[in-house]
Amino acid sequence: MSEGVRVAILGATGAVGAELLELLATRSFPVAELKLLASPQSAGKMLNFKGEPLTVEAVTSESFRDIDLVLASAGSAISKAWAQTAVESGAVTIDNSSAFRMDPKVPLVIPEINPQAIATHHGIVANPNCSTILMAMAAYPLHREQPIRRAIVATYQSASGAGARAMTELKTQARSILDGKAPPTEAFPFPLAFNVFPHNSDLSDNGYCQEELKMVYETRKIFGVPDLRMTATCVRVPVLRAHSEAVNLEFDAPFPASRARALLADAPGVTLLEDWQANRFPMPIDAAGQDDVFVGRIRQDLSHPCGLELWLSGDQIRKGAALNAVQIAELLLRERGLRPTAAATENLVRTE
């Protein structure tokens, strides 16, 4: 790794951190140096990158010295504590937490939708919430054709959205229940195996949980429609990896399902999956480990002449988190006109 970009992964031992490592390797991101950062409890662990063992370090104020790019996926509290330090050290931070998403000075980016927003960054670029990304990938190609008047979304969110510990807990719960034992509940407040419950993020005074409000506010910012009418109901389901969503879109005029199908078939990052004869549409097992968001069951809303229904499944860890972050990093390199060999002497960050 003698040429390229000096990268640090903050939260390297988590589920998204592991995916970031894989994607940097498989997408041939020009990594000159790679630093793995986590909490003191994880310091000393060994992880592999392209067959090379790397030691996880505890994050400190010196961790970002001589780093060009920070991929942060350790939670909002950690990002708030360290992102500015990284920027002051000369690195750009792509943050996967909710810490900066609604900051008007921080671009919130899905590269297939609003790549132009990258140009406004001042050292931090925010990665949207996983449910927002997956929904937006399916809705935006239609919105670009005919502006969405209202969106109603119901999510079916997998354990992966709560991290590696939650995925392990779901497996343990399933075994415990099948063995006639009480399932452990540490990562989740209730058993998730063989069960569903409303998303357990904090409730606001209006009765919506934070996950639902993230979808509303983030979609408005990404689409550039601050008054977009939207509502969401987010639910945890006993799926290990990949979220699904039922999406109802209302337009000002009828939107033929055939036209929507054609647009989504050509949309980047989207795979149309429909077999009406077999009643076969996207499922989490289709999306798990895949880059694309799988969309199908596109049909007219029987209750509204200008309504359209669709169903999607997408990998929460991949496009919903790690892949989108790496795509933002690739976009930064492209838009800033940096050559990999020059990245060691020029910082990615530029304060406008």
From TrEMBL:
Kindly indicate whether the keyword Amino-acid biosynthesis belongs to this entry: yes
For the ligand (NADP(+)), the binding residues are 13-16, 160-161, 184, 316
Q: According to its UniProt record, in which pathway does this protein act? A: Amino-acid biosynthesis; L-lysine biosynthesis via DAP pathway; (S)-tetrahydrodipicolinate from L-aspartate: step 2/4; Amino-acid biosynthesis; L-threonine biosynthesis; L-threonine from L-aspartate: step 2/5; Amino-acid biosynthesis; L-methionine biosynthesis via de novo pathway; L-homoserine from L-aspartate: step 2/3
List the EC numbers from the record: 1.2.1.11
Q: Which domain of life is it from?
A: Bacteria
* Residues reported to bind substrate: 157, 236
Q: Which GO terms describe its molecular function?
A: aspartate-semialdehyde dehydrogenase activity; NAD binding; NADP binding; protein dimerization activity
Q: Where is the Semialdehyde dehydrogenase NAD-binding domain?
A: 6-121
Record: residues binding phosphate: 101
> Which catalysed reactions does the entry list for this protein?
L-aspartate 4-semialdehyde + phosphate + NADP(+) = 4-phospho-L-aspartate + NADPH + H(+)
Q: Spell out the InterPro entries in the cross-references.
A: Asp_semialdehyde_DH, Asp_semialdehyde_DH_beta, NAD(P)-bd_dom_sf, Semialdehyde_DH_NAD-bd, Semialdhyde_DH_dimer_dom
* Pfam families documented for this protein: Semialdhyde_dh, Semialdhyde_dhC
Cross-referenced SUPFAM superfamilies, in alphabetical order? Glyceraldehyde-3-phosphate dehydrogenase-like, C-terminal domain, NAD(P)-binding Rossmann-fold domains
Ordered alphabetically, the record's keywords are: Amino-acid biosynthesis, Diaminopimelate biosynthesis, Lysine biosynthesis, Methionine biosynthesis, NADP, Oxidoreductase, Threonine biosynthesis
Q: Which CDD domains match?
A: ASADH_C_bac_euk_like, VcASADH2_like_N
Q: Might you name a Gene Ontology BP term for this protein?
A: lysine biosynthetic process via diaminopimelate
Q: Could you say which protein family the record assigns here? A: Belongs to the aspartate-semialdehyde dehydrogenase family.
The protein's matches in HAMAP family, at most eight in alphabetical order, are given as: ASADH
**What is this protein for, i.e. what is its function?**
Catalyzes the NADPH-dependent formation of L-aspartate-semialdehyde (L-ASA) by the reductive dephosphorylation of L-aspartyl-4-phosphate.
Q: Which PANTHER family match?
A: ASPARTATE-SEMIALDEHYDE DEHYDROGENASE, DEHYDROGENASE, PUTATIVE-RELATED
NCBIfam families tied to this protein: asd_B (TIGR01296), PRK14874.1 (NF011456)
Q: How does it assemble?
A: Homodimer.
Q: What protein does this entry describe?
A: Aspartate-semialdehyde dehydrogenase
State the organism named in the record: Rubidibacter lacunae KORDI 51-2
